[in-house]
Amino acid sequence: MSSSAPNAVLSVSGIGKTYAQPVLSDITLTLNRGEVLALTGENGAGKSTLSKIIGGLVTSTTGHMQFNGQDYRPGSRTQAEELGVRMVMQELNLLPTLTVAENLFLDNLPSTCGWISRKQLRNAAIEAMAHVGLDAIDPDTLVGTLGIGHQQMVEIARNLIGDCHVLILDEPTAMLTAREVEMLFEQITRLQARGVAIIYISHRLEELARVAQRIAVLRDGKLVCVEPMANYNSEQLVTLMVGRELGEKIDLGPRTIGGPALTVKGLTRSDKVRDVSFEVRAGEIYGISGLIGAGRTELLRLIFGADLADSGTVALGSPAKLVSIRSPVDAVGHGIALITEDRKGEGLLLTQSISANIALGNMPEISGGGVLNSRDETALAKRQIDAMRIRSSSPAQLVSELSGGNQQKVVIGRWLERDCAVMLFDEPTRGIDVGAKFDIYALLGELTRQGKALVVVSSDLRELMLICDRIGVLSAGRLIETFERDSWTQDELLAAAFAGYQKRDALLNDAVLRDTP
Fold first, then answer.
1. For the CA atoms of 148, 152, 158, 164, what is the dihedral angle to 10 degrees?
2. How many CB atoms lie within 10 A of CB 122?
3. 155 has pLDDT over 90
4. What is the C-alpha separation between 203 and 316, in angstroms, rounded?
5. Which residues form the ABC transporter domain (predicted)?
6. Least CB-packed of 152, 303, 412, 469 within 10 Å?
7. Per-residue pLDDT tens for 230-250?
């Protein structure tokens, strides 16, 4: 469809972007009113760069755009938003020390004679939050006290306020619960009915099939497909994205599973983690499944010393030797690594180079007498860039310029230099495309062949079934059951994930009945 089509709200023609090297080349496509255009491709394919150009965060090197038939070249995100082009990014644009209401209306606080009208602000926030299913949250709550999933919904609500003609959603469901995802999809349907055009960026192909009318696929900065969504199934899309076929099975290679390397007994913290016990053997991948809020991240933080347990023990080696872990420094000293789910907030210094980020946990190896050896730092970074196949222009490239998958590889590369015997992975492939996922899986296999014990938390049940030797299921803070490979089914794993909540609810109902006169 040409840019002059009467239903076109946005058209881009010949758009290219070059940093140290080209990241986008000759992108031409049209976005129509009331449609959802899925935008997908491997990490590093150029999806975020293209969306940032449309959203006014980045200026293109070549090409031009039209918005509602007029030349469109926003100089900033603010200019784009004033015209009605909004973008919800993976990096949340919220101020944690302000309330939900203040974040929603930061640029347009209701006031009288210079004083903020708290009542008006609260009422407006309640209305905006209701659109995305946040009715239960007090608008006076500080954003920093909310979980990442709720923060994401606040960010979406903020961008739906006012006049919106184009909405860009970058991996919007990566941190949402199933209920929140349904609320988002309902909102997308309402927006379409109002004529809002939506660019929906995601690696979750089943979601794209559900919400999108057309799909645009990027590969290596080039547009390889703009077609009706109904023309492709998931396997065909994956082949378009990566340029090769990927199977649904993975061979982790020959491994020897040894004795216990990590033994957890009775680990407890309030009602988040309750009396959890398990062991992980050398050379094994032990998966942890469960619903969001089941205590998966909290369990890893307890093992790593990021939070302190009320009771319980952690032991290492075989025979098991109890260790005292009161902080992450203690954990690292004992050879335990944690690759956090929030790589941008907790795992990386986004404004620093690849070499600086990899060096962060390896200072003794590249410094002497308190002075950093830049040659050793660069050599260390090059070693991990090659080993991890990190797509970058050089070790000096800023981590913020990398795709999500390559950022994750930088985090993992830092820990690989420390040669930790126990590695805890929290959502290691969240926000990462299919091709990069298989790179991470291959890396996990290599780590197990080195005899390391891996604990992997993932919301993707199929991922755990693909790579794990055993899967433990957490429900309402308790470890319900551990399944062996080839003896689990998806239905059994899901049933176990709900079991703890059903038992808890039954106990609460019994208690209410006993207290009722």
1. 170
2. 17
3. no
4. 37
5. 7-245, 257-501
6. 469
7. 998 877 877 777 665 545 567
Q: What is the pLDDT of residues 344-377, one digit of tens each?
A: 777 788 889 999 988 887 777 788 777 888 888 8
Residue ranges per domain, the chain? 8-242, 258-335+420-517, 350-419
CA angle 70, 71, 77 (to 5 degrees): 105
Name the more confident of 2 and 321: 321
According to the model, what pLDDT value does residue 442 have? 87
Residue 503: per-residue pLDDT: 65
Q: Decide: 139 and 100 in contact? Cβ < 8 Å.
A: yes
The predicted structure's pLDDT at residue 1: 36
Amino acid at 106: L
DSSP H stretches of helix in 20-130: 47-54, 77-83, 100-104, 118-130
Render pLDDT for 243-280 as a digit per residue (tens, 0 to 9). Answer: 655 455 677 778 899 999 999 999 999 988 999 999 99
* Beta strand pairing call for 478-484 and 115-116: unpaired
Which candidate, 37, 64, 71, places its Cα nearest to that of 167? 37
CB 443 within 8 A of CB 389: no
Smallest CA-to-CA distance from 86 within 150, 172, 173 is with 172
**Higher per-residue pLDDT: 92 or 480:** 480
Phi then psi for residue 337, to 5 deg, are -115, 150
Topology (CATH level 3) of domain 258-335+420-517: Rossmann fold (3.40.50)
φ, ψ for residue 389 (rounded to 5)?
55, 50
Confidence category of residue 402, pLDDT binned at 50, 70, 90: confident
Could you give the CA distance from residue 195 to residue 470 in angstroms, rounded to a whole number?
Answer: 48
Q: What is the mean pLDDT of residues 43-50?
A: 81
Do the first three CATH levels of 8-242 and 258-335+420-517 match, i.e. the same topology? Answer: yes
Mode of pairing for the β-strands spanning 367-368 and 371-372: antiparallel
DSSP structure class, residue 99:
B
Q: Are 453 and 422 in contact (CB under 8 A)?
A: yes
- Find the mean pLDDT for residues 31-39: 95
Structure tokens at 456: 């992997």
Q: What is the secondary structure of 104-141 as a DSSP string? A: HTTTS--EETTEE-HHHHHHHHHHHHHTTT-TTS-TTS
Q: Which of 378, 373, 435 is nearest to 406 (CA)?
A: 435
* Strands ordered across the beta sheet of 453-457: 336-339, 422-426, 453-457, 285-289, 470-475, 478-484
Alpha helices in 321-403 (DSSP H): 328-333, 354-359, 374-388
Residue 288 burial by Cβ neighbours in a 10 Å radius (0-12, 13-18, 19+): buried
- CATH 3.40.50.970 given to domain 8-242: no
